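Journal club side-thread
Mid-discussion, someone asked how the predicted structure for our own chain would compare to the paper's figures. Pasting it here so we can look after the session.
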Amino acid sequence: MLFPCINRRPRLLAMTLATCAATLLPVLSTSAHSFHRSGPRRAAHHAPPANGAHVLAQNQALASGNVVQAAYAFRGTRYVMGGTSRSGFDCSGFVRYILSATGGVDLPRTATEQYIHGAPISHDQLQPGDLVFFKGTYKRGISHVGIYAGGGKFIHAANAHKGVRMDDLGDSYYVAHYAGARRVLPAQMRLAASLR
């Protein structure tokens, strides 16, 4: 018998158990959320919360109707494969979100589908707001898309290490994988598309 004195006094046993329960239950309930069958849970990887000023700047850029300015305002947003929201984008999810939010241009979901949407244009006809496409970046065929910003630059959700950023179309990697460009913006939105 572990505690002979408690066994002989039921009231003492009840008080001891109540005290233990009151002391241990809050500790056990908070630590239970930290452990899983296989050990401690790993924290979910989330983008750091955007501060109010950053979100305000994004909202203002989206409301301006300027596709390039809006895309630029999202630099630093993390890359998430299949992502279609501010908490994380993949390349085609980013392009679709920006064009839809700035002027209601409805694009298909994937880069391959976006490539067959809109009018093909040559490299020397590129204007800010046009979509630039790349092939063979991680799979065969069309595999990446970005928004042309002018001056040989484009904005895109690059990859999990870099997130949304601006890059140079003249970079040897992008030159090697360039597949073409498409014009999807109405004329009025093209006129407004520039990096100010």
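Post-session note: The first strand starts at residue 35 and ends at 36.
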